[in-house]
Amino acid sequence: MFAMNDLKGQVAVITGSTSGIGLAFARTVALCGGDVVLNGLGDPDAIEKTRADLAAETGVQVLYHPADMSQPDQIADLIETAWRKLGRIDILVNNAGIQHVEAVESFPDSAWEKIISINLSSTFYATKAVIPVMKAQGRGRIVNIASAHGLVASPFKSAYVAAKHGVIGFTKTVALELAQQNITCTAICPGFVETPIVEKQIEDQARTRNMSKEDVMKNVILGSQPTKRFVTTDELAGIFLYLVSDLGASANGSHYSVDGGWTAQ
C-alpha cells in the first residue's frame, strides 16, 4: 500500500514559496517529512522567521534561496544549490507568479515581459535545470501551478492568461519527453485562492472596471466560481500529495482543475 503522506528522505524545491500556495505546499512537504527549499520575495527577517519556524515545527531541513525568477542564471543556481546542499531533488514545484490587470491597448510592455518571464519562462528554466538531477536519481515529480486561466480567459489579464496557457502546453511536452524516465510532469489549475496575489487583484480590478472592492469580490472574483467561495490551500494540498506520490506515477502530462466548478461552465 502506497503512503501518499510519507515524503521522508525526499527534497522539494518550491518557487514562490514565501507566501500563498507555495508556502502551503512547503508546509505540506515538511509535515510529511520531506526537506524543503523555499524561494520568493519579501522582507528578509520575515522570510527567515518563516523558514526557522517551519524547520522547528517539523524537524526537517528547510533552506531558503533568494533567486529572482526572472533571471535564468539565478534559477539555475537555485537548483544547483538545492542539489549540492541536500543531495537530491525529488519534487520541483513551479509556482512563482505575478499579475497585472489592464486592458491590452494600455497594458505596459514591461508588465507583459515580466509576467511572461516569471510565470512561464521560469518554469522552463527550473525544469531544464532539474531534469539531469532527476534522471540520475531515476525518479522525479515536476508539478506546475497553472490556473483556471490556463484553460479559460478573463478580460484584462492578457499576459497572465497567455503565460498560464503556455504552462499547460509546456507541461504536456515535458511529460512526453520524460515518459520512460520515471519522471512525471503535471499541472494544477486552481481557481481563486485567498492569497496576496488575489488580494492585489481585487484592488486592480476595482480600478480597471470602475467598481467597488465589494462588487469585484462578489461579481468578478467569486462570480466565476459556482461554489461562491475561495479554494483553500488544504484542498490543493490533497491533489498535490497524490501527484508527487507513487500513486500518481501514471498521472503524467495532465492538468487538474481545483476551481469550484469554474471551468465546468
Distance between the termini: 37 Å
What string gives the helices and strands in order? EHEHEHEHEHEHHHE
Uncertain spans? none
DSSP E strands, number: 7
* Helix share, percent: 40-55%
Portion in beta strands = 5-15%
Largest sheet: 7 strands, parallel
Major β-sheet strand ordering: 3-2-1-4-5-6-7
Shape: globular
Provide the residue-averaged pLDDT: 95
Structural class, from secondary structure content? alpha/beta
What is the overall number of helices?
A: 8
The radius of gyration computed from the alpha-carbon positions, rounded to a whole number of angstroms, is 18 Å
Write structural notes for this entry.
- The protein is an alpha/beta fold.
- It is 48% helix and 13% strand.
- It is built from eight helices and seven strands; from the N terminus they run βαβαβαβαβαβαααβ.
- The protein has helices at 20-31, 44-58, 72-86, 109-137, 158-177, 196-209, 213-221, 233-244; strands at 11-14, 35-39, 62-65, 91-94, 140-145, 183-190, 255-258.
- Helix 1 crosses helix 8, helix 3 (72-86) packs parallel to helix 4 and helix 4 packs parallel to helix 5 (158-177).
- It is globular and about 50 Å long.
- The termini are far apart.
